[in-house]
Amino acid sequence: MSVKRLLLIGVAAAWAAGCARPIPVKVGAPVAFQHRTTVFTIDVPDDWTRLQDQVPTEALGIFTDPTGQATIVAYVGLLDHRFGNEEGLRVVARLTANLLRRPDDYQITGQEHRADGAFEVGFRYSRGEQNHAGLAVFRDTKLALSGVIISGPEAFWPRLRMALLPYAESFEFDPEVVRGAYFDILEDVYYILVVPIDWPRQRSRFGTEVRSRFGRMSIRLVQRDLGREIDRADLVDQTLATLHAGFNLVVEVLASEPQSDGRLKLTLRQADQQIIGYVETFDTHLVGIFFDVPDDRVEDYQSFMDFVYSMYISGLP
User: Fold this and answer.
1) Closest CA to 186 of 216, 157, 219, 164
2) Which member of 43, 44, 166, 195 lies 3.0 to 4.6 Å from 30 by CB, making a disulfide possible if both were Cys?
């Protein structure tokens, strides 16, 4: 999951604005806004201040009314796994607090995992002398967490909420931009694939490990010259030996299954992690890709693994 830091230069001024006493907020005619990365679009009131920023795998837009009291926040971030009910609500509540600059008195007033799959979180907080209320609605899709936060003076909130909901509901993100802009190419002599652009990479003796920043997922790429050609019967043993030598992994083999593309799929386990690998040989070289995910959450990570694997190409140089 790539729900991490998003540094928006100059946003503090937008959040700091506002009135000591609430005054009515005007919600003007809608105009279309597209983030400069083109990853999302949203309708916003025509006279509201617009700020936007991005880091490698996140995009943000903040829209504030002329009095500085009401705000719409739109967000898209790379996601490496789908959420369960409690996790999704917890993540959305934490992300909302972060995007509100972590108010000391931030409180959750309601939470719901809706029938349409959205995670909805109601909240309240104060800014200066004014109490605010708000609503966050986010969705976890195959590769992204995306959604909108609306907030404003608590004194006017029921009416303001109804006025801002159409703007929040106009939000759309483009998964093609996520696939194209949030991933980078990783290649060696015998393979090429895409990985999240800001995940740390570490070379090992026989390959490279790419690890998610805050999640429990890693992707390992193996390329080892065995010095001799091997047959399918020896492939599993050589794979286990390579994982131990290159990444210090001692694993249990759960399953071995030939694939239609000629690779051998291996399902392995180490402690509470499951490792799903695809291995093959080219001349004297062992080549493989391995996804390491929590043993009890494989299904939640499956769509992310499927995408990365669909971009994986291996072969003779």
Assistant:
1) 219
2) 43
